[in-house]
Amino acid sequence: MRILKLLRALKRSWSKYRPSVEVLISADNLVHNLRAYQRQYPQLSFAPVLKSNAYGHGLVLVAQILDKENIAFFVVDSLFEAMILRNEGVKSRILVIGYTSVENINNSKLSDVAFAITSLEHLQAIARAVTKVKKFHLKIDTGMNRQGILQNQIAEAIKIIQGGKYIKLEGVCSHLADADNENANFTKLQIGRWQEIVEIFKDKFPEIKYYHLAASAGVFYADYLAGSAVRLGLGLYGFNASSSVKLDLKPVLRIESIVSSVKAVLAGESVGYGLTYKTARPAKIATVPAGYFEGIDRRLSNNGFLKINDCFCPIIGRVSMNITTIDVSAVPDVSLGDKAVIVSDNQSDKNSVESLAKLARMIPYEILVHIPQHLRRVVV
User: Fold this and answer.
1) Given 17, 154, 166, 261, which is the most exposed site by the fewest CB atoms within 10 A?
2) What are phi and psi of 363, to 5 degrees?
3) CATH 3.20.20.10 domain position(s) in the chain
4) Which CATH superfamily is domain 27-237 in?
């Protein structure tokens, strides 16, 4: 709790401080994306995924924007994330989908928070040691072979749950391993297994409120999942998780900095650590006070782009810890303090999340979750 108090104190002082790098969050686009899914798939309910700092967008900020929307529940990875949300006044139901120790489950005093049961051993430990009624979602492995009880363990799990005085089964869940692949054979195999599992649990536990198999890419199979909840992650933040899903989604995030210096260099001059870039002609170069500590991946050295005055400026030399150098020769008028867009919210830009991911040989998820937590998020 001392950490939370420190964060609050910092927030109060931040109002007088203008950082050199900011993450700008569009509340309108965030709500637009959620409602786009809800309109397109009225047979489903949606659970916004807020783990990993809401995919880099800001855990508390995103939760506060969506708290009054029509959602099933919020999904976080850890009890600590759930504690932060409750401490910040977030009211919606929460599912802690990552592994939580029995000790932490027992010690939790949070209201309307459910915990995922991630294996048969986890369930057995919970049944032995939990001393107060808690809500749970049982994970079942339908083929991903990561977390969840095995299908041949279902009968034993049901017996344990039925005999568990303090186990309130609120949900059953699984996860699709290959939903974003246009070859749907394995996904349909998982869905078939899932449908059988749902029938078993509906018979044994008619009070179960939530069944959820799919994430953003899985909504393509909505016809097989009527009545289910969908854990909405990447799609919520404006990115189509599958080429099969056609929705008008809008990126929620952009990152901006400023130009901190401009200088002219001669032809044949080297730029940055390791002398990895040499000017072929006289050039005008600029620095931006953001580097790999601020989330500009080092793999974008001599490879990526920043946007200044509507011009895409190539990154030259190595990305440093807190400084990135760019070639601004093509920018007609650039000066100290000009806005520099590090990550654009225009999907067609050379420095959009998806474009940067391709340049760095990453996936969009990595670009997003690597946005440092210390950068200030501002709603625009």
Assistant:
1) 17
2) -115, 155
3) 27-237
4) Alanine racemase (3.20.20.10)
Which residues are catalytic, by number? 51, 273
Q: How far, in Å, are 29, 233, 359, 376 from residue 56 at the CA level?
A: 16, 11, 19, 11
Quick one: CATH architecture of 253-379? Answer: Beta Barrel (2.40)
CA pair distance 8, 285, nearest whole angstrom: 39
The pLDDT of residue 223 = 87
pLDDT tier at 4, thresholds 50, 70, 90: low
pLDDT at 1: 62
Q: What percent of the chain shows pLDDT beyond 70?
A: 98
Q: Is the backbone of residue 82 left (phi > 0), alpha (psi -120 to 50) or beta?
A: alpha
Kindly list the strands in the beta sheet with 229-232, ordered across the sheet, starting from the edge strand earlier in the chain.
Answer: 45-48, 229-232, 210-215, 167-173, 134-139, 113-117, 94-96, 74-76
In which residue ranges of the chain is CATH 2.40.37.10 found? Answer: 253-379
Q: What pLDDT shows up at residue 18? A: 84
The Cβ of residue 92 has, within 10 Å, a number of other Cβ atoms equal to: 17
Q: Quote the CA–CA distance of 88 and 91 in Å, as a whole number.
A: 9
How many degrees, rounded to 5, is the angle at CA 117 between CA 80 and CA 217?
85
Q: What is the pLDDT of residue 188?
A: 93
Kindly provide the residue ranges of all beta strands, DSSP E only, lying in the chain, ordered along the sequence: 22-25, 45-48, 74-76, 94-96, 113-117, 134-139, 167-173, 210-215, 229-232, 253-258, 261-265, 270-271, 277-278, 283-288, 305-308, 311-314, 324-327, 339-343, 376-379
- What predicted TM-score, i.e. pTM, was given to this entire model? 0.93
d(CA 57, CA 39): 24
